[in-house]
């Protein structure tokens, strides 16, 4: 083997409740913002397809876990649907949801697959969103109650917990760039949402650490987009540094170091954008940092200095400080339109090692979305050699980072199977396993056999 990974390396894949469960109005589930948004504005979604049935994991989890086992997974990430567990967001726990998640967890453990459980993957219960969602401080308390229920119900078997997946995405999508509900564009509200998310994270971490969960760890999952300047001239460097502050360090620093970067705070102060805080919050954040970090990596961010000064009378936006830059000759995923830059994974890991105490981490999502993947079917199987190459090239860089002392413990592909995605519905396919949207039939892709061998050999 040319690339051997450390003993006990985590091989697996990631999913989220809204994207795979289906059964959106079954089993006592309450509504979340995605159910509601689809009902009220179906034409925002690709092909007018909503999250009602998705891959139907709710009914087919046993078959799926059998396939995970078959392809060598020793770990698997899922999220709990808040509105399934506590249909109104607050109050009574739904017993059917408890049964479902117990069954899934037990089935995973019976197959020697360790469950990594995430509490929040973009799916705010509708009632809480109607109160103002993450803009409202009260929702932080509702989240803490929900988190406590999850630890109480499943903490005897689940050791790896995550408070949030990509918390910046609901901030960008819901409050800056109009691709998540409630689709407002207002930076000040965006920063309040981001801030309350970090407070909620810290409260859940604080509570978790009072529990006596043997080998238990809690952390957060961040989509890190390493920021590369067009050139080394000071204006480009500054643009890149500020993009990094807004899109990476706004969550990475408080979650891992326990404090916000001073330069970010200064920028927000100068422009009258600081969120409302409460006494004691900063201490809470300081004292309750993550034990473990999940890194989602898809693409880098390339930026250059602003071509022109922003109009000072226009509403404040992070984009006041940089322009996106399309580097000539960059490698693209031509099936999805995202840049592929494998070395980004290494740069992230080195940064974590040098500036973030080499926190225990793993790649919690990385993957290649492909449109119309059926065109690659031969003999009934999708020949996704492009995905194999994509994963392999990223793993080489991860391997190099580990050799240089980075504390990376695993690799999860996005995703185990093809699933429904936010606004894009089934447009981009990501799985090791293909899912027929009509019949829900599962078929392994070529990459599934490849990853089975990689995980069985712990390398390639
Ligand atoms: C990440 C999310 C996932 C998943 C993935 C692919 O940001 O955590 O939920 O959707 O991106 O993105 P998309 O489905 O938009 O191609």
Automatic annotation (TrEMBL):
Family: Belongs to the glycosyl hydrolase 1 family.
InterPro entries noted in UniProt: GH (IPR017853), Glyco_hydro_1 (IPR001360), Glyco_hydro_1_AS (IPR018120)
UniProt key word Hydrolase: yes
Keywords: Glycosidase, Hydrolase
Organism: Salinibacillus aidingensis
Transmembrane segments: none
Active site: 365
Taxon lineage: Bacteria, Bacillati, Bacillota, Bacilli, Bacillales
Transmembrane helix found in the keyword field: no
Pfam families: Glyco_hydro_1
Protein name: 6-phospho-beta-glucosidase GmuD
């Amino acid at each position: 083997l040319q690339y051997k990974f450390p003993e006990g390396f985590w091989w697996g894949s990631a999913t989220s409740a809204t994207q795979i469960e289906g059964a959106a109005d079954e089993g006592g589930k309450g509504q979340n913002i995605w159910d509601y948004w689809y009902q009220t504005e179906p034409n925002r979604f690709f092909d007018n397809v909503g999250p009602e049935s998705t891959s139907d994991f709710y009914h087919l989890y046993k078959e799926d876990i059998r396939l995970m086992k078959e392809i060598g997974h020793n770990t698997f990430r899922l999220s709990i649907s808040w509105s399934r567990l506590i249909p109104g967001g607050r109050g009574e726990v739904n017993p059917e949801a408890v049964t479902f998640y117990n069954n899934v967890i037990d089935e995973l453990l019976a197959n020697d697959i360790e469950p990594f459980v995430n509490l929040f993957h973009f799916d705010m219960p509708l009632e809480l969103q109607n109160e103002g969602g993450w803009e409202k401080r009260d929702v932080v308390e509702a989240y803490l109650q929900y988190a406590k229920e999850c630890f109480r119900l499943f903490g005897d078997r689940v050791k790896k917990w995550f408070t949030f997946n990509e918390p910046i995405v609901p901030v960008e999508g819901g409050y800056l760039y109009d691709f998540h509900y409630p689709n407002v564009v207002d930076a000040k509200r965006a920063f309040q949402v981001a801030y309350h998310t970090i407070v909620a994270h810290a409260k859940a971490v604080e509570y978790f650490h009072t529990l006596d969960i043997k080998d238990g760890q809690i952390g957060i999952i961040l989509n890190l987009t390493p920021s590369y300047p067009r050139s080394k001239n000071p204006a480009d460097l500054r643009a890149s540094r500020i993009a990094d502050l807004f899109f990476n360090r706004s969550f990475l620093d408080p979650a891992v170091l326990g404090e916000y970067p001073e330069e970010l705070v200064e920028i927000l102060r100068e422009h009258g954008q600081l969120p409302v805080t409460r006494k004691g919050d900063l201490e809470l954040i300081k004292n309750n940092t993550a034990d473990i970090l999940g890194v989602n990596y898809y693409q880098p961010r390339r930026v250059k200095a602003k071509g022109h000064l922003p109009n000072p009378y226009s509403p404040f936006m992070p984009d006041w400080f940089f322009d996106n830059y399309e580097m000539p000759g960059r490698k693209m995923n031509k099936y999805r339109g995202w840049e592929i830059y494998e070395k980004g994974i290494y740069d992230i890991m080195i940064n974590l090692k040098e500036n973030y105490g080499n926190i225990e981490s793993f790649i919690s999502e990385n993957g290649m979305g492909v449109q119309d993947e059926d065109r690659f079917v031969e003999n009934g199987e999708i020949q996704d050699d492009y995905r194999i190459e994509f994963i392999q090239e990223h793993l080489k860089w991860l391997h190099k980072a580990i050799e240089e002392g980075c504390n990376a413990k695993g690799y999860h592909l996005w995703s185990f199977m093809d699933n429904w995605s936010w606004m894009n519905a089934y447009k981009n396919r990501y799985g090791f396993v293909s899912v027929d949207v009509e019949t829900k039939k599962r078929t392994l892709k070529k990459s599934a056999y490849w990853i089975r061998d990689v995980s069985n050999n712990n390398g390639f």
